[in-house]
Design goal:
The protein is built from 14 helices and four strands. By secondary structure, it is mostly helical. The N and C termini lie far apart (62 Å).
Length: 323
């Protein structure tokens, strides 16, 4: 099969060549892990003196410089001490040069709380509004430690430091939750290659039925970690949808090859392998089942011939006056 089929880019979109990236280790969310993470977040927030409803920060909150201006002081307080996005929106009206940054940070805070519709509106507005030099300097000085946990694919979350990736990935997830897969795909199309961006991109493309693009974007992928395994699952499902069963089977084998792959992802791979077997008309995908398949067909043919011969014999017997 040719991985370059389809109308999208014919090159992989998952290989990040940067030495430093804004991504931290991804997580596969399960009911138990989700509960544990939630409790852990509350406990760490209480012990660290921070409300878990505030914007996440890696390490300590950066201290405000003594000579910071009034807009910077108000922004610092609104970002790091508040859980209310309306406070940031008020600052956007008070300081027009900071409006874009205020709306982006308000959008990330709303996204953290699960308000996808409002988050998408705020993030879009922030991304289309230019900021002045003072706001840009504040962003580079104080926001580098801000962390957003973004769902880049179903059950796959990645902590992302404040960057274009964190904003666009949060926007893409919000749009997917609203059923706007095409807009979600467009929002991540310009991001640098990386596994989280590839997961978001392929998730949106697969939901639109653009399986050929998913296959082209994931060619040559190996199971190096759970993010790669999750992307391989999406690739396998797209290959199956296109009818490339052998290639889909190879992708699922790669998911199961690495023993440290998340149990949830391994279970998904086993389930997908069973569904693939159904599509292929086999009970299993083992070499033994393949060897036995011709013999089984031959046996069925013999049974059919025996039944036909018996019917002919019964007809002849009746014509001869038999009971």
């Amino acid at each position: 099969m040719n991985d370059g089929l389809g109308g999208g880019a014919a090159v992989p979109v998952y290989h990040d060549t940067r030495d430093l990236t804004p991504f931290r280790e991804g997580h596969v969310r399960t009911p138990v892990r989700g509960l544990a993470d939630g409790v852990g977040g509350v406990i760490s927030g209480v012990l660290g003196g921070r409300d878990p409803g505030r914007i996440g920060v890696e390490g300590e909150v950066p201290r405000l410089k003594r000579l910071a201006g009034q807009p910077a002081k108000a922004m610092h307080s609104a970002v790091f001490t508040s859980t209310a996005p309306d406070r940031l929106i008020t600052l956007a009206r008070a300081y027009p040069g900071w409006s874009g940054l205020c709306h982006v940070m308000a959008g990330l805070l709303v996204y953290k709380h699960g308000g996808y519709l409002r988050a998408s509106e705020l993030l879009r507005r922030g991304l289309t509004t230019r900021i002045d030099d003072a706001a840009s300097q504040f962003s580079s000085s104080y926001l580098g430690q801000v962390v957003t946990r973004v769902e880049v694919a179903e059950r796959i979350e990645v902590p992302v430091l404040f960057s274009e990736e964190s904003v666009f990935l949060a926007l893409a997830h919000s749009l997917r939750e609203l059923g706007q897969a095409e807009a979600a795909l467009d929002s991540v199309a310009g991001l640098p290659p990386s596994l989280p961006a590839a997961l978001a991109r392929c998730t949106a493309a697969a939901s639109l039925g653009r399986h050929a693009d998913v296959v082209a974007w994931t060619g040559g992928l190996l199971n190096a970690d759970d993010l790669a395994a999750a992307l391989l699952l999406i690739r396998a499902r797209s290959l199956r949808a296109l009818g490339y069963y052998d290639d889909a089977q190879a992708a699922l084998r790669e998911v199961l090859r690495r023993r440290k792959t998340s149990l949830a992802l391994r279970n998904d791979a086993v389930t997908d392998r069973a569904l693939l077997a159904v599509d292929m008309g086999r009970r299993t995908l083992t070499p033994r089942s393949r060897r036995q398949e011709p013999a089984a067909l031959e046996t069925l043919e013999v049974i059919r011939k025996d039944a036909a011969m018996r019917r002919l014999w019964e007809q002849d017997w009746k014509q001869l006056g038999g009971d």
